[in-house]
Structures are given as C-alpha cells and as structure tokens.
Amino acid sequence: MTTPALPAPVVSVAYHSGFGHTAVLAEAVRTAATEAGATVHLIKVDEITEAQWEQLDASDAIVFGSPTYMGTASGAFHTFAEASSARWATRAWQDKLAAGFTNSASKSGDKLHTLQFFTVLAAQHGMSWVSLNLMPGWNSSTASENDLNRLGFFLGAGAQSPNDQGAEGVHKADIATAEHLGRRIAEQARIFAAGRAALAA
C-alpha cells in the first residue's frame, strides 16, 4: 500500500524593500523554495491586500524580510507587524514556521537586531523559528567573501549591499545564502506537514 503524496507546503515571503536590495533577497528565497517543492507567495507588506493576508493565514511558513534601517526593520515592516495583531488575537499564525532575512549597507549595521525583532514577532504569534543552519563563512585567512553566510549570521540570512548601488549591488554570496534559507524553510515545512499528517492518521 502506497502512502498518498502530501500537498506541497505553502510558504509566504512577507517583505519590504526600500531600494530594491531586499527584493532581490526575497526573490532568491522564493526561487529556491519553489525549486524545493513549495508553493510560494511573494507579498510586499507595504502593498498588502486582504487576499494576501488570507494567503499568510493559509501558509505553512512565513519568511519575514526587511532592510535594516537605524538598527531595526523598516517603518513599513513595523506597520505590517503591528497590523498583524488582528491575527495575533485569533492565533491565526500559531504553530506555523517562521524565518527571516535582512540587508543593510554596513557589514554589521545592527542587522542582528532586525532578525531578533522577527523572532520576537514570530514568538508573539506562537510560531516556530527556523534558523539559517549554516556555518559562518569568511572567518579565516583561507576563506573568501564569496562564501555562503559570509557575514556569519545564525538566526537568519544577512546581506550587505553598498549604499551607492541599486539592486545590482547585492552580493552574489548573499543571494546564495538567501537561496539556502528558501530551500531550508521549504524542507522544514514539508517535514512539519508530514508530521501533522502522520499524527492525524
């Protein structure tokens, strides 16, 4: 007797991009998650519609993305986070998976604080955080700025793009790191969906 195939996990990438850099990362997450078998929705939080809120409600995983401005997520992303309180009140996102990515012009730029903001947002909603699960790159004399996770983040994907360049300035290694995050969230969502199906059987 064969086990029926499970439906593809649904992943939504909820992001804001001020100058195009974070949009490049969002696209990388979407591409890799799709290639890993997920159905992926790309949602610009500063243009979100009621139908897209419903897509978030129906997702197995939500990946948060924002540039880091003045040491935290952008104002547009904060507006979205506050608006999600309607979902918080009904526990609509409880037990979903969450992950995140961010970009700033500086190599640090206090990006860690943005990723921590995402984790607290996820915790408020009762979600389970999925880390990057990559060893740090570019941390020895034989390493390279072209390494995956070249900036050495663990909570999520961090990227650095020069402030005098547009979307073309996003580093290829940072795009590859975002792709890794997309594959990882899709794979973890599939595992969670299989577990739920096994418990329900």
UniProtKB/TrEMBL annotation:
GO annotations of cellular component type: membrane
The Flavodoxin-like domain, residue ranges: 11-156
SUPFAM superfamilies according to UniProt: Flavoproteins
Pfam families named among the record's database cross-references: FMN_red (PF03358)
GO MF annotation terms: FMN binding; NAD(P)H dehydrogenase (quinone) activity
Annotated Gene3D superfamilies: 3.40.50.360
PANTHER family, alphabetized: FLAVODOXIN-RELATED PROTEIN WRBA-RELATED, FLAVOPROTEIN-LIKE PROTEIN YCP4-RELATED
Alphabetized PROSITE patterns for the sequence: FLAVODOXIN_LIKE (PS50902)
Coiled-coil residues: none
Protein name per Swiss-Prot or TrEMBL: Flavodoxin family protein
